[in-house]
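User: two proteins, same treatment. go.

Assistant:
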Amino acid sequence: MAEVLNKCGIKREKGWLYFIDKKGNAARVQMARKGKKTSKKQEVLFKCGIKRQKGWLYFIDKKGNAARAKMARGRK
């Protein structure tokens, strides 16, 4: 189960990869397509200011909110 951290309400567009960057902001970058390279320049969409913690996966969910989920661990 994912935990919503910030209700950003980001509208997703086709051909873009949405993520939480190292600074804790919602950002996007254009995906590489046939014969085209990605620009590798990210565009910050929303300044969330999320503090990252070890063992969590941070992402933009289907509704456009910043969320996190506990990472799976290996066998014990």
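Protein 2:
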Amino acid sequence: MIHTYSLNGYNIAIDGNSGSIHVLDDITCEILKDENELPLQVNAQEKVRGKYSADEFSEAYNEIKSLHEQGMLFSSEESLVSAVNSKQMNTSLKALCLHVSHDCNLRCEYCFASSGDYNSGRKLMSRDVALKSVDYLVANSAGRHNIEIDLFGGEPLMNFDVVKDVVVYGRQIEKITGKHFYFTITTNGTLFDKDKIDFINDNMDNVVISIDGRKEIHDTVRHDRAGHGSYDKIMPLAKELIAGRNGKSYFIRGTFTARNKDFSKDVMHLADMGFKEISVEPVVGSGSNLYFKESDIPDILKEYENLALQYIERLSDERKFRFYHFNINIYDGPCLFKRVTACGAGYEYVAVSPGGKLYPCHQFVGQDEFVIGDVFTGISNHKMCGEFMKNNIFAKEKCRNCWAKLFCSGGCHANAYFSNGSITQPNELSCTLQKKRIECAIMIQALMAAKEI
């Protein structure tokens, strides 16, 4: 399958089964547009008759035919299946999302975690459960040198002593086992103080801080129990922490809703505040005026294109920043196997509740039907783990026939389940927005290559 589109003066074709990307001239774009298989020469010529010379047509068609013969246009699914089947899946554990706190000092209106307690009661993870979780990761990560722990919540800084215990214990284990831990903390940042900032910057390989953008947008949805906005508190603290990162990774991670369909302004606001690593993502859910309706989609798609054009303007000056969804690595990105098998939820990556229960990922925590075991006795629901393991792009009919499948890997299992009741049925709205982000990202890559940015 081929997807062709034009954006910002670039004609682009994407081959869905190989992931190959081609920047096209006008005649080649016209020939390929709306074609699901290599067009017969006579049919292709008819599409552009009277617009281009015979020589121009011959050159364009021969190039298309050559790319087809190389497996870079109109490639078959069989070649993709063969490439994936040639590699053995690594099912050992790579990462834990450690829910050290099922409580939060904020009451964000769109919170997927039910204001931090995941509908399971407000509680903090004990030191014993936390350290047992670290042991579980080490014991089940055979063949891996690098392993990861994300300190998560609720708000993990409400259980900061346990956060510190996990990191200290992990570093001790490194010396014994030869493993290397990669620590991330995801936080709303409002509880930062000097001690916490210093510890995080000394010990966390990555930090994710939640800020939604402009003050009036952020405070509308990210407020405390009394309804007071959190922007004025978090902004100076986030800046202080980021200033001390000394090159270590971080992300400012925001959410946009139906109330700010002009979300490019929020992205640019965060960039103007000095942040260089930014991700602002669409809210997922339904039921209130925060969530998107079908009628909102055209505005959001247009706004992504608007954001892409503003983003391009900053690529060559001191205002440059990285927007997460526009940074597809088309040269050295994930291997083909990983593009097909997706995030690894349920076997490579699991989440741990405060009591030690295991779930396929952080978004399923608190859903009793998704408990797959615990850190004390291990995996008990092997059937469910198998269902997640098999839930690749070949298991989803909509994905198999989609040009974007090798760039999104079939989308989020949790978004699919909570919107459609099945992890095999992708969230259609999420798919639509993801495709537009991919189109914008590839156009930006084409521009950067052309201008050698």
